[in-house]
Each structure stands twice: as structure tokens, then as C-alpha cells.
Amino acid sequence: MQPYSDAISYNQPRKPQGRGGTWFSLALLVTVGLGFVFRQQLTDAYRLHNYVPPAAIAQLAAQDGLQPGTRRVFFVNHPQLQNKATFKTACPNGGGETTIILGCYHGGQNGIYLLQVSDSRLDGVTQVTAAHEALHAAYDRLSKSERRKVDAMLLDYYNHGLQDQRIKDTVDGYKKTEPKDVINEMHSIFGTEITTLPKDLEAYYSRYFIDRTKVTTFANQYQAEFSSRQAAVKQDDALLSTLKQRIDALEANLNTQQIQITSRQQDLVAKRKNGETAAYNAGVPGYNALIETYNTNVREVQKLVSQYNELVAARNDIAAQISELSNALSSTATQINQ
User: Fold this and answer.
1) Directed axis angle between helix 182-193 and helix 125-140, to 10°?
2) pLDDT, tens digit, 9 for 90 and up, residues 224-277
């Protein structure tokens, strides 16, 4: 009996078998490699299979002027417009953000959720939020080398070019509360809320937007609803402070005049009792002049007090509007102090 090892003759042409196995291994490696390289594309295709974006979502993508690739990223995350109750569940704690929350993106392309805002005064806010979250998803896809380059551009602009104090305050808030996500937030904020950026950043964002001014126009539009009212409240507060100073000064003067009038009145009464008729008659015109001046100042104070109260009412009405707008944006918004 021949040994088991001789069951296949040594003289049989074994190399073709070896080559066939090698090619199979190479094919497997190539397939695995391609699968790794195109893993995101394959995942996207799977998530987009039979997916039809709701009309409102498709409209947001169109209104924001998103590039086809950005729309694809946006749709891969199956964006949802949600009412406040549902949104609070989808974005607990605003996804970690500390400001008024309008949307959130779940990392790893696992969903975009947008707060449904119905107040017509805030038209544009949902469009900006949609673009903001789409940029989070896009940033998530950057390679390490791309991210280093983009981060450097964002930080350079923040440190040397950013002038908008509101944006600075927003970024500084993230620096304190979410230092690991600051540049990610810069990426979304700068791209959607700053009209003019350095050429390198404009060139970079052009990969995401056909016309970025569409979304920044929306941002300016709804921000103006807040900024105009905040400016009016600030102006009213300054005027109220001036009016109060004038009222306080006039009331202090009235107190002095009252003392003078009381003193002059007592003097005239004494002169009349003492029969000093000539002196009494001579003092009456001056006394009456004091009374007239006093009454004139009283009317001026009353006028200013009325003006002050009317301005307080107008100021508080504007402040209430700001509070309404804030509440329209978030179920967690608080009332403004009045």
C-alpha cells in the first residue's frame, strides 16, 4: 500500500492549482479592499435604497442650494422634521449642545432631526438648521488629512478674521462646555451663518453648496427678527434710564420748591397776622410765581412719567415678542426678564 501522501502523484502538475488558489486569494483581498474603500458608498446605497425624501425635506435641500453630493449625505441620514415633544426624545439635551437647540445629527450617519418651527417670523431658521446638520454629517466623513487641513483653515479664520461678536460668543460657549466639538461646530456655523469667508474656506464650502449665499441669507433673515428687537429693547432701556434720571431730578427739585413754598407761605401768614399789609402784598407775587413754577414742574413730571410708562409697555411688548420667538425655537426656552 502506498503512503497516504502518495495518493496524489508528486508528478501531477500542481502549480496551476497553486496559482488558481493564489488568484482566488488575491480576488478575495481585492474584494475586501474594495469593500473597505467603498464601504461608505455601499452603506449609503443601502440606506438610500427605496428611500424617497418627504416633500418638506426635499424642499429644504433645494432651498439651501446643496450640491448633489451634499443632498445625498443629507438624505442618507433620513432627516426628520419633528414637533417639540418628539424632537426632545430624538435630541435629548440637544445632542449635548447648550444653546437653543434646533436640530441634531447622530454621529456615524445615524440620523438628522430638525425641530419644526411654525412661526412665520422665523422663516429661514429650519433651512439654516438643515444645512448646519448636513455639514456635521459631511465633517464626519472627512479623512484625517482632510480634517487637519480644514481644521487649520477654520482656526485661522476664528483667530484672525472673525468679526461677528454673536458668532464669537457662540463659539466661546462651545469652548467652555464642549471643547472636543468646537471645530466641528465652527465647521457648521461658519458655513451657514457667515456671509463672506476667506477664499480658501469659500472654495472648500463650494463642495457642499451650489450657492452658499442662499443659506446665509436665510440666517440673516431670521437672526434679524431677534437682533432688531434686541436692539429696540436696548435703545428703550437707554431712553428709560435717561427719563428716570430727569424724573428723579425734577422730583428732587419739587421737594425743594415745596419747602420754599411752605416757608414763604408761613412768612406771608405771619405778616398778615401782624398787620404788615404792605409787606404781605409785596410778597404775594413772588409766592404766586413759586406756585406757578411748582405746578409747571408737576405737569412736566406727570408728562415724563406718562411717557416713561408708555415706553415701559412698548419695551415689554418687544421683550415678550423675543420670548415668543425663543419659545417657538425650543421647548426648553425660558421667558426673558422684564
Assistant:
1) 140
2) 999 999 999 999 999 999 999 999 999 999 999 999 999 999 999 999 999 999
Burial of 157 (0-12, 13-18, 19+ CB in 10 A): middle
In the structure grid, which three cell numbers stand for residue 51, read together? 428611500
- Give the Cα separation of 111 and 104 in Å (integer): 8
Is the distance from CB of 43 to CB of 109 less than 8 angstroms? yes
- Residue-wise pLDDT for 113-170, tens only, equals 999 998 899 999 999 999 999 999 999 999 999 999 999 999 999 999 999 999 999 9
Grid cell of 180 as nine digits: 472636543
- Which amino acid, one-letter code, is at 321? Q
Q: What is the DSSP string of 263-316?
A: HHHHHHHHHHHTT-HHHHHHHHHHHHHHHHHHHHHHHHHHHHHHHHHHHHHHHH
Domain spanning 225-329, CATH architecture: Orthogonal Bundle (1.10)
DSSP 46-79: HHHTT----HHHHHHHHHTTB-HHHHHHHHHT--
Q: Are 157 and 217 in contact (CB under 8 A)?
A: no
Spatial strand order of the sheet with 80-82 comes to: 80-82, 112-115, 103-105
137 phi and psi angles, rounded to 5 deg? -65, -35
Q: In the structure grid, which three cell numbers stand for residue 164, read together?
A: 461677528
CA gap 72, 81 in Å, rounded: 17
Q: How far apart are CA 113 and CA 264, in angstroms?
A: 77
Note the pTM of the prediction, 2 decimals: 0.75
- Angstrom distances, CA of residue 31 to CA of 47, 224, 245: 21, 54, 81
Q: How far apart are CA 179 and CA 171, in angstroms?
A: 10
Contacts of 298 (CB under 8 A, 6+ apart): 254
C-alpha cell at 108: 456615524
- Per-residue pLDDT at 246: 95
Task: Enumerate the domain spans of the chain.
Answer: 55-211, 225-329
- Residue 90's alpha-carbon distances to 108, 180, 326, in angstroms, are 15, 22, 20
